[in-house]
């Protein structure tokens, strides 16, 4: 039997990049997955890939920063697949600047997507989780559920030019540790994975200095100066950036039964960098 057979997972920001690989990995191990992306096309494309491989998936399109998104995301899982076992808070992006040039809009946007949105999703899931746990306890069952919050090495040790992102990712680690204590009684393991340098469209070498992506009408610069990227990789003990598939593997470890007694932890997935 596959390790996640019969489980239901929601993965935010899973139409592209690391989130997509997380969704594909969970589905390949038997989980029914609710795929989310800001745009419909990548979300539906990921759903189709999962279904073509024999898995189960549905899409929940929209911005995680919408006030009602958390309840809609949870309802999609419960109504579509009959439950909720795994929550992966992955959606996000960076909007960097040194502090003297960082605007309130930059600060607020990054805090909203990386910290407020996961909080709202988890709050929305609390009613179902508490009710299900009570029923299972009354039946003499011990059923573990999993929350994996995506953090960053910027949130563990800071990073110049990322005061907003580092603060938000440090915050998600604090939320992880608090919720591990609150939800332990419900048999929910709550952990964070702090990614180091992972190859995605946001971190690849910038061939075009003006390369950007559109996030809800905002033009966000993406890509890294090739020399800066080369220097960063030289500091990684394994000698290279990680792949989205490797990043997904770190998340998967917190979703399987073997991690049932691990909670409140921050795992650095950084190729040996602390």
Features:
274 residues; alpha/beta; 9 strands; single chain; 7-stranded parallel β-sheet; two-stranded antiparallel sheet; Rossmann fold
CATH topology: Rossmann fold
Structural category = alpha/beta
Termini Cα gap: 35 Å
CATH superfamily: NAD(P)-binding Rossmann-like Domain
The total strand number stands at: 9
CATH architecture: 3-Layer(aba) Sandwich
CATH classification, class level: Alpha Beta
Q: Look at the structure and give the mean pLDDT.
A: 94
Strand residues, percent: 15-25%
Number of contiguous helices:
8
What number of domains? 1
Biggest sheet, open or closed, and with what strands and sense? 7 strands, parallel
**Portion of residues in helices?**
40-55%
Shape estimate = globular
Alpha carbon gyration radius:
18 Å
Strand order in the largest sheet: 3-2-1-4-5-6-9
Low-confidence stretches: none
SSE sequence, one letter per element: EHEHEHEHEHHEEEHHE
Could you characterize the architecture of this molecule?
The protein has helices at about 15-30, 40-50, 70-80, 105-140, 155, 165-185, 225-235, 245-255, and strands spanning about 10, 30-35, 55-60, 85-90, 145-150, 190-195, 210-215, 220, 265-270. The protein has about 270 residues and is an alpha/beta fold. It has one domain (about 10-270): Rossmann fold (3-Layer(aba) Sandwich), CATH 3.40.50.720. Helix 4 runs parallel beside helix 6.
